[in-house]
Amino acid sequence: MNGWSKNVCSLLKQNPEKSIILMDGYDLRGVLSDQADLRDFLHAKIAKLNLESEPYLGLPQYLEEQQNE
Length: 69
What we know:
Structural class: mainly alpha
Distance between the termini: 34 Å
Radius of gyration: 12 Å
Strand content: under 5%
Shape: globular
Number of helices: 4
Oligomer: single chain
Helix content: 55-70%
Order of helices and strands: HHHH
Number of strands: 0
């Protein structure tokens, strides 16, 4: 599947009982090319969902947050 509709994130935020995180092709390529550790990236995605109800944390944002820590 190629991407998701622009309404997906807002719909998931309206349904907090659904624990769904999103990953796109860029995220997957970054993990496969060792830009990010899969476990650490998934933990960050889950934390973003749990703390901010945000189902999508992209690789660029994740890497930036890692540099700022």
